[in-house]
């Protein structure tokens, strides 16, 4: 099997090792009677838990859980731009890091290409919302840590929402809250908010991010092979969920505001 | 030469585009491409299995395909696959430092890789173009297959690098010739495989192989392949007509342009990259979508763009294919 | 919508229009052939000549250090390179772009070996030419010129390290708007009496000697700003005027003509541009026809035969 390289900073496993051989269990059907394995309907997203203020050091932070996906987001902003180049609008930096234990296969502790591409997607979703022209010469840093990952596309969607909440928690001026929804398409229909197994079995996936307050779309991403009709249906399916997701995000923000107010008064 | 434009220049470009009739800096119509120069085959990279160089205005991309034999039993692959890589020549982005150039390289590589790798575990019944291509790439089913290395080099970027990159890859895959192989068995010297036959009855052999590869490192079966005579006249890849191409639309609230030059990209930075794959019947399929740059769009406008892009893609494929056919049938 | 070509797109194999140099300036001797030298090539075999730019003594002989044309003035031998960065002279008119804003000065890209410098004291400040510089001006330099702005200026002097110092202390100089910029090799622009050309088609062209050309809407003489009415709002503003469709199309035509000339190494001046424009109108070509290689070739052929 693959030889792990000897790293003297860590406790290394045995030089030669083989994974255990499991008997082939019959694969659980992904959809039974129109319901998925966790009891959701095809067009249901996983229940969301979203709370701000998790990381006290940061100017703003948010923690989001959807199903098995757990993501923490911290915002440090506005800060002085590091390099001397003048810019009359602020710069938004989004950095994403997967925890080594976040996926089934251990990830390297160094940043790799996938971290960057996820970061780019979250950046694209957030960019139109932040009023960068009010922050000249400043940088707005968003750090996202993916603690557990169950479905890459849903990670991006949840990370965008967490980042948007954290930015609001930090008091950064935005045109609206960004919400994001992903979908997978297969022969039996469109599944919203797919997890890893569902993505693997699907023909194609599509992610949509937008600002429900303005009624616009900020990001569109698609992979796999989807016909044009199916793609339009996926986009509509995702878009229908925006209102509910927006309510969840606003609710979380309001709750934390009330908690802060109550604390200030007492 | 990535100079920043002045506000007056950007506003001049945008006003010209939004006036009626819309006017671009070089007089093209909003949906016109610059003149596309296509060179394929031996004039580009004679040692590669397939190659092409596409130049559109100041953007130039060279793409080459190299096939290597992959032993399927020792890797995670189950059949022939494609591996993509994009390198940017330092001359393409002289104003950027090393890290930024690496970022651009990894962005282009990941969009290429994401488009050309199929979802292996997909339970869908619709075959992707990669499924079709894999048939040509198989040598000994389950044992040996061709690994297709698709490498592209961006020599210079004068705007619209995504479209040119995908065009170059399509052209290189179009004139790729997979060497013809013939399966050979050494177990019984009196039973040489028949020429052209690629499948061997290997039920018993497979379980033997499985057991032996678990116990000892590699107990390679003696079953092997050899190149046929005239191997270099090879066969083209099945499904090459379905190879995806990209259409980049630079967007203003009321108008969109194709094939933006560098200066136009700076004045109209919001863009939508749509990757299409067309089946034999002419049905379009999305193989990828990306939204890049600052800006947001109303939903209906976005959906309309997807339909417009399909028309442009169809035209591009027809023209590009007829050009490729005249050069290389 | 999609047009293809299978040429390699390189410059034509015979760009023989290397006419950037006026033969009248050079004093030819029958033996020194007006040829092109390569680096290291021996020019003359005696040391009685004084060596100018582009030469070095190779033992007893004089050899060239650049690929270029030989120039001889009496006893001075020098080699002028075919292609090089723009070499500035005092009094040259250049079109330049702001690259950096520094305390009391701007760093400007004028296609030279180094970035040129535009001092705050060398620009006209709003409120009249005689206005003195205030502290607040130093803090608000970006209200005048910021990164990316294009301006037309004159070379005033040189710094010790060879960097140009520019000034915009005339009403005709300053920030550029209402048009677009084209870049050509600097050699194609000859030194003319006036680099502000008003073409017959209603388009103004500013031929910067550094190879940067600005094509814009025509500004009538009587509409140019007078001395008393030096208004910061208009001079340093970034807003373009209203430009009608005919002028925009003329600007596109002129830009395409200039690009064709640059590709065929044809020297550019206002007479040449007027002639080319008339040729195009006579032959009734569309705007984007000029992007075709054949039409470009035909234009150059017509220019060099008919009008030479």
TrEMBL record, chain A:
One GO term (biological process): nuclear mRNA surveillance
Annotated Pfam families: RNase_PH
GO cellular component: cytoplasmic exosome (RNase complex); nuclear exosome (RNase complex); nucleolus
Superkingdom of origin: Eukaryota
Region listing for Disordered, in residue ranges: 1-27
Keywords per UniProt: Cytoplasm, Exosome, Nucleus, RNA-binding, rRNA processing
InterPro entries in the cross-refs: ExoRNase_PH_dom1, ExoRNase_PH_dom2_sf, PNPase/RNase_PH_dom_sf, Ribosomal_Su5_D2-typ_SF, RNase_PH
Basic and acidic residues: compositionally biased ranges: 1-13
Exoribonuclease phosphorolytic domain ranges (all copies): 45-173
Keyword Cytoplasm in annotation: yes
Main location: cytoplasm
GO molecular-function terms, A-Z: RNA binding
Gene3D superfamilies: GHMP Kinase, N-terminal domain
Localization, UniProt: Cytoplasm; Nucleus
PANTHER family per the UniProt record, alphabetical: EXOSOME COMPLEX COMPONENT (PTHR11953), EXOSOME COMPLEX COMPONENT MTR3 (PTHR11953:SF2)
Family according to the record: Belongs to the RNase PH family.
Name of the featured protein: Exoribonuclease phosphorolytic domain-containing protein
Taxonomic source organism: Serendipita vermifera MAFF 305830
UniProtKB/TrEMBL annotation, chain B:
Chief subcellular location: cytoplasm
GO BP annotations, alphabetical order: exonucleolytic trimming to generate mature 3'-end of 5.8S rRNA from tricistronic rRNA transcript (SSU-rRNA, 5.8S rRNA, LSU-rRNA); nuclear mRNA surveillance; nuclear polyadenylation-dependent rRNA catabolic process; rRNA catabolic process; TRAMP-dependent tRNA surveillance pathway; U1 snRNA 3'-end processing; U4 snRNA 3'-end processing; U5 snRNA 3'-end processing
Entries under InterPro entries matching the protein: ExoRNase_PH_dom1 (IPR001247), ExoRNase_PH_dom2_sf (IPR036345), Exosome_comp_Rrp42_subfam (IPR050590), PNPase/RNase_PH_dom_sf (IPR027408), Ribosomal_Su5_D2-typ_SF (IPR020568)
Residue ranges that the Swiss-Prot or TrEMBL entry lists as coiled coil: none
Short name of any one Pfam family annotated for the protein: RNase_PH
Cellular component terms (Gene Ontology): cytoplasmic exosome (RNase complex); nuclear exosome (RNase complex); nucleolus
Localization of this protein: Cytoplasm; Nucleus, Nucleolus
Keywords: Cytoplasm, Exosome
UniProt xrefs under SUPFAM superfamilies: Ribonuclease PH domain 2-like, Ribosomal protein S5 domain 2-like
Gene3D superfamilies membership: GHMP Kinase, N-terminal domain
Superkingdom, taxonomy of origin: Eukaryota
Cytoplasm as UniProt keyword: yes
Record domain Exoribonuclease phosphorolytic: where: 33-179
GO MF terms, alphabetically ordered: mRNA 3'-UTR AU-rich region binding
UniProt cross-references to PANTHER family, sorted A to Z: EXOSOME COMPLEX COMPONENT RRP42, EXOSOME COMPLEX EXONUCLEASE RIBOSOMAL RNA PROCESSING PROTEIN
Entry's family note: Belongs to the RNase PH family.
Name under which the protein is recorded: Ribosomal RNA-processing protein 42
Record lineage: Eukaryota, Fungi, Dikarya, Basidiomycota, Agaricomycotina
UniProtKB/TrEMBL annotation, chain C:
GO annotation, biological process: CUT catabolic process; exonucleolytic trimming to generate mature 3'-end of 5.8S rRNA from tricistronic rRNA transcript (SSU-rRNA, 5.8S rRNA, LSU-rRNA); nuclear mRNA surveillance; nuclear polyadenylation-dependent rRNA catabolic process; poly(A)-dependent snoRNA 3'-end processing; TRAMP-dependent tRNA surveillance pathway; U4 snRNA 3'-end processing
GO molecular function: RNA binding
UniProt domain K Homology: residue ranges: 179-219
Record domain Exosome complex component N-terminal: where: 36-73
Localization (cell): Nucleus
One Gene Ontology cellular component: nuclear exosome (RNase complex)
UniProt-listed Pfam families: ECR1_N (PF14382), KH_6 (PF15985), S1_RRP4 (PF21266)
KW rRNA processing (keyword) present: yes
UniProt superkingdom: Eukaryota
Record bears the keyword Nucleus: yes
InterPro entries found in the cross-reference section: Exosome_cplx_N_dom, Exosome_RNA_bind1/RRP40/RRP4, KH_dom_type_1, KH_dom_type_1_sf, NA-bd_OB-fold, S1_RRP4
Main location: nucleus
Record's keyword terms, sorted: Exosome, Nucleus, RNA-binding, rRNA processing
Domain RRP4 S1: 85-156
PANTHER family documented for this protein: EXOSOME COMPLEX COMPONENT RRP4, PNAS-3 RELATED
Family the UniProt entry places it in: Belongs to the RRP4 family.
Protein name: Uncharacterized protein
């Amino acid at each position: 099997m693959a030889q792990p390289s000897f790293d003297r900073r860590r406790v290394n496993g045995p030089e030669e090792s083989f994974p255990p051989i499991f008997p082939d269990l019959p694969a659980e059907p992904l959809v039974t009677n129109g319901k998925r394995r966790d009891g959701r309907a095809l067009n249901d997203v996983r229940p969301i838990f979203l709370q701000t203020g998790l990381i006290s050091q940061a100017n703003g932070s948010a923690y989001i859980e959807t199903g098995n996906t757990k993501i923490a987001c911290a915002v440090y902003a506005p800060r002085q731009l590091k390099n001397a180049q003048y810019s009359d609008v602020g710069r938004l930096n989004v950095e994403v890091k997967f925890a080594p234990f976040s996926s089934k296969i251990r990830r390297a502790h160094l940043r790799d290409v996938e971290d960057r591409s996820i970061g780019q997607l979250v950046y694209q979703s957030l960019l139109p919302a932040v009023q960068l022209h009010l922050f000249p010469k400043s940088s707005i840093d968003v750090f996202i840590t993916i603690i557990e990952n169950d479905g890459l596309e849903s990670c991006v969607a949840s990370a965008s929402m967490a980042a948007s909440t954290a930015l609001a928690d930090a008091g950064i001026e935005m045109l609206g809250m960004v919400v994001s929804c992903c979908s997978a398409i297969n022969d039996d229909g469109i599944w919203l908010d797919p997890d890893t197994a569902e993505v693997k079995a699907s023909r194609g996936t599509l992610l949509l991010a937008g600002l429900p307050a303005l009624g616009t779309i900020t990001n569109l991403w698609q992979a796999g092979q989807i016909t044009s009709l199916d793609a339009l249906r996926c986009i509509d399916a995702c878009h229908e969920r925006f209102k509910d997701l927006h309510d969840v995000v606003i609710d979380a923000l309001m709750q934390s505001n009330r908690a802060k107010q109550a604390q200030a008064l007492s | 030469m990535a100079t920043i434009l002045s506000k007056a220049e950007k506003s001049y470009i945008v006003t010209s585009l939004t006036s009626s009739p819309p006017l671009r800096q070089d007089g093209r119509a909003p949906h016109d491409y610059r003149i596309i120069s296509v060179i394929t085959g031996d004039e580009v990279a004679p040692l590669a299995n397939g190659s092409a160089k596409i130049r559109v205005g100041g953007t130039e991309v060279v793409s080459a395909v190299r096939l290597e034999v992959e032993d399927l039993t020792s890797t995670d692959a189950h059949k022939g696959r494609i591996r993509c890589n994009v390198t940017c020549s330092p001359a393409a982005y002289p104003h950027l430092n090393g890290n930024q150039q690496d970022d651009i390289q990894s962005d282009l590589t990941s969009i290429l890789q994401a488009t050309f790798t199929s979802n292996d575990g997909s339970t869908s019944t619709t075959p992707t173009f990669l499924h079709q291509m894999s048939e040509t790439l198989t040598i000994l089913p389950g044992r040996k297959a061709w690994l297709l290395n698709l490498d592209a080099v961006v020599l210079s970027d004068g705007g619209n690098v995504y479209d040119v990159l995908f065009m170059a890859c399509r052209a290189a895959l179009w004139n790729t010739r997979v060497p013809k192989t013939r399966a050979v068995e050494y177990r019984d010297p009196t039973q040489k495989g028949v020429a052209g036959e690629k499948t061997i009855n290997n039920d018993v052999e497979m379980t033997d192989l499985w057991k032996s590869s678990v116990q000892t490192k590699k107990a390679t079966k003696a079953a092997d392949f050899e190149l046929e005579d005239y191997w270099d006249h090879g066969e083209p890849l099945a499904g090459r007509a379905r190879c995806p191409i990209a259409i980049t639309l630079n967007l203003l609230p009321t108008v969109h342009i194709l094939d933006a030059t560098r200066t136009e990209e700076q004045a109209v930075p919001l863009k939508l990259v749509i990757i299409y794959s067309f089946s034999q019947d002419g049905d379009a399929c999305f193989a990828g979508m990306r939204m890049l740059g600052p800006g947001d769009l109303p939903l209906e406008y976005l959906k309309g763009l997807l339909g417009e892009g399909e028309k442009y893609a169809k035209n591009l494929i027809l023209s590009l294919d007829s050009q490729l056919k005249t050069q290389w049938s | 919508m999609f047009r293809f070509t299978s040429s390699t797109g390189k410059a034509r194999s015979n760009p023989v229009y290397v006419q950037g140099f006026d033969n009248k300036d050079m004093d030819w001797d029958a033996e020194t052939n007006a040829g092109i030298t390569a680096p290291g090539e021996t020019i003359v075999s005696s040391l009685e000549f004084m060596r100018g730019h582009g030469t070095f003594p190779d033992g007893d002989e004089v050899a060239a250090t650049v690929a270029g044309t030989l120039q001889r003035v009496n006893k001075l031998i020098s080699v002028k390179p075919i292609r090089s960065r723009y070499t500035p002279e005092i009094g040259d008119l250049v079109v330049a772009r702001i690259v950096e804003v520094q305390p009391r000065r701007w760093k400007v890209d004028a296609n030279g070996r180094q970035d040129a410098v535009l001092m705050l004291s060398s620009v006209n400040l709003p409120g009249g030419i005689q206005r003195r510089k205030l502290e607040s001006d130093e803090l608000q330099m970006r209200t005048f010129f910021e990164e990316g702005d294009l301006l037309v200026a004159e070379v005033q002097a040189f710094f010790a390290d060879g960097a140009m110092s520019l000034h915009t202390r005339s009403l005709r100089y300053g920030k550029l708007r209402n048009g677009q910029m084209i870049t050509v090799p600097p050699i194609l622009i000859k030194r003319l009496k006036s680099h502000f050309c008003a073409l017959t088609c209603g388009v103004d062209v500013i031929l910067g000697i550094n190879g940067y050309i600005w094509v814009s809407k025509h500004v009538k003489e009587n509409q140019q700003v007078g001395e008393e009415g030096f208004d910061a709002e208009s001079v340093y503003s970034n807003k373009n005027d209203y430009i009608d469709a005919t002028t925009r199309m003329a600007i596109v035509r002129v830009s395409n003509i200039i690009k064709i000339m640059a590709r065929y190494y044809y020297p550019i001046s206002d007479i040449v541009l007027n002639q080319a424009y008339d040729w195009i109108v006579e032959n009734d070509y569309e705007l984007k026809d000029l992007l075709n290689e054949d039409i470009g070739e035909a234009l150059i052929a017509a220019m060099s035969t008919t009008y030479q």
